[in-house]
Input
Amino acid sequence: MNPLNWISEELEKLESQHLRRIPTVRHGPQTLEINLDGRSCINFGANDYLGLANDVGICRTVMEAIAEYGWSSGASASLTGRSSQHDKLEKALAKFEGTDAALVFPTGYAANVGTLTSLAGRGDVIFSDEKNHASLIDGCRLSRADIQIYPHVDMDFLRNQLRDTSQYRRKLIVTDGLFSMDGDVAPLPDLVALAEQYEAILIVDEAHATGVLGSLGRGACEAMGVEDRVAVRTGNFSKAFGSIGGFVTGSEPLIRWLYNRARSQVFSTALPAAACTATLAALQNVEHEPYRRRELLERAQWLRTKISAQGWELPAGNDHIIPVIVGQATDALALSQSLLSRGIYVPAIRPPTVAPGESRLRISLSYLHREEHCEALVDQLGRCKAASTSSQ
Ligand SMILES: *Cc1c(COP(=O)(O)O)cnc(C)c1O
Output
C-alpha cells in the first residue's frame, strides 16, 4: 500500500468542507487590473498598498542593479551573500525607522521566526495575541519557550497572565501592529505599559503598517506614539514597499545578536542585491511621497463607511485592510466567486487563516485604486447583499 494514500483522503475532506485551496495563475504583473486564470479583474487581493510593486522607475532601477550585481546572492549573509546593497539598505532602514540598527532577512516570515527563536528558549515564556500572524505563531513554537495565548487585544487577560511569571527567566510579549486579517491596530500604549511594568520584551510586527501608518510611515508604533518604548520591531518589504524581504529594527546589541543567532538568516540564502536596491528605491517613495499613504487611508475610510452602510459586518478599524465578515467558508467563497464573475477580485479568507465561523472577504486597498474602482466594488457588493437578502 502507498504510505501517502491518506493525503488523498485528507484532500477530499478539505474539499467537502470548502477549505481546499486551488492554485491560481496570475498572467502579467501584480497591479491594479490583473489577469487571474485568464480572467481580467480589478485586484483587491494584493498587499501592494502604495502601488510600488510594478512601479516603472523601481523596475528600471532593479534592471540596472542586476546588470551591476548579477542576479542571485549565491550564499547566506554570513558568508558572501551580503552585498553593499544589503549594507546600504540596513543603514537607510535604521535611519528611516529612527533606530540604532536594522537587519535584513530573506522574508518577513524568516524575520519573525529568527527573532523569536533568538530571544526566547526553554525556561522563558511568550505571551501572544490569538490573532497573531502565522510567522509569529511558528516562531513561538520553534523557540521551545512556554506559550501563553491571550484573547485578541484583551489587556486585562494579559495583565493577569503576567502577574504569575516568577518561575520564568525571560518574558516576551508579541503582537501584530496592524492585524492582518482583522485590520485593527493593537492597543500598543497598553502593551508598552504592561511590558515595562513586568519587564517583558515587547515585539511588534509591523508587516502591514510599515510605509502606511504614522505621519512618517514608520508604522503602528509611530502612529500610536510609542516607537521609543518598543524594544523590537519586525516587518517586511513585500507589502507597502512592493518588494521582497523582511527586517528587524532595534538596538545595536539586539541586531548583532540576531546576526549571530537567527537561524532563518544564518542558514538561508541572502536576498539578491537587486531586491535590496528595489527596497531602497521604494523607501525613497515612502519618505518623499506621503500623499500615497494619506490618499490610501482616506479612501479606506470612505470605503468602510459605504460598505457598513450596506449592512455588512466589518470589525472595528480605520485602515486599508478591510475585512467583510461572512461566517461560513462556503458563503465567503460564493461571495468571492460572485464578485469575480463581475470583474472584481476580493479573496475569501477561510480556516485555518481565520477561526471556523469567521470566514470573510478581505479587501486589500491600494493607492492604485481610484474612486471609480472603489465605487464599482461598493456597487457590486450592494448587489450581492440585495440578492442574498431577497433569497432569505
Ligand atoms: C505577510 C506577513 C508576514 C510575512 O512576511 P513575508 O515577507 O511575506 O514573509 C509576517 N507578518 C505579518 C503580520 C504579515 O502579514
